[in-house]
Design brief:
Elements lengths: L3 H14 L4 E4 L11 H14 L4 E6 L4 H10 L3 E6 L4 H8 L6 H13 L3 E8 L7 H14 L3 E6 L4 H8 L7 H11 L4 E3 L33
Parallel strand pairs: 1-2, 2-3, 3-4, 4-5, 5-6
Length: 225
């Protein structure tokens, strides 16, 4: 495991000098960063002692809301949580979490948003499942509760027969239509594929009703079907 000194030696010069600088903990292949929350808290504090420049991001499964709170309070700028479904039963079937449940995932996003952190979900997409009416309704409810800023969509590289057998049968409306439904419900919800730097975050806030933003923002990106 890298030490505090080693992480800062790599990250700080990048934040200080790079154009559109962003450092990110957790990319989905090297383990869950929240298990090293004490180190990451110290890293963030040290980085922000050295510069206010650049974006500090966390990619996570959202398993420990209290640890998320500590990182946010230390100076985290953005947070992304990966999930395949906003329904606990389907989330549990695919992710098979140990030591936490779907409620903690949701609470991590709410916790971050309450602290002014830019939040997104890494939604694992499989046509025929993700675009089912039940799934879309669950996603709408989830967005209303968490008030996330961005939906990142990624193809779920898995045997579709195996996945749909696990998730049960159903018919999708089409990914394109699903996006249209979400845009209608949340006019200023962003869609994309990558984490954003804080210079490209939206500045507007959610309305008290949670039905969208109170002020117009930038044009959203179009995801091709």
């Amino acid at each position: 495991m890298p030490t505090l000194k080693e992480v800062v030696e790599v990250a700080l010069p990048h934040l200080q000098k790079a154009e559109g600088a962003i450092v990110s903990f957790g990319q989905g292949c090297e383990g869950e960063p929240l298990v090293r929350f004490r180190l990451l808290t110290d890293v963030i504090l040290k980085l922000r002692e050295g510069t206010e420049r650049g974006t500090i991001n966390l990619n996570t499964n959202g398993s420990f809301p209290r640890r998320v709170k500590m990182l946010c309070d230390a100076g985290l700028d953005s947070l992304r949580v990966t999930l395949n479904s906003c329904h606990p039963k389907y989330y549990m079937r695919y992710h098979r979490p140990k030591g936490y449940a779907f409620r903690q995932v949701l609470d991590s996003l709410v916790t971050a948003k309450e602290r002014g952190i830019y939040t997104s979900i890494n939604l694992l997409i499989l046509p025929g499942f993700t675009d089912r009416e039940e799934e879309v309704k669950g996603l709408i409810h989830f967005i209303r509760e968490t008030r996330i800023d961005l939906v990142q969509m990624r193809n779920l590289n898995i045997d579709p027969d195996l996945y749909l057998k696990l998730m049960g049968g159903g018919t999708g409306m089409g990914i394109s239509k699903m996006i249209d439904v979400l845009r209608k419900e949340f006019p200023f919800l962003q869609f994309g594929y990558f984490n954003r730097t804080k210079e490209s975050f939206y500045s507007q806030k959610w309305s008290s009703r949670g039905q969208g933003f109170s002020e117009p923002g930038e044009r959203t990106e179009l995801i091709a079907p």
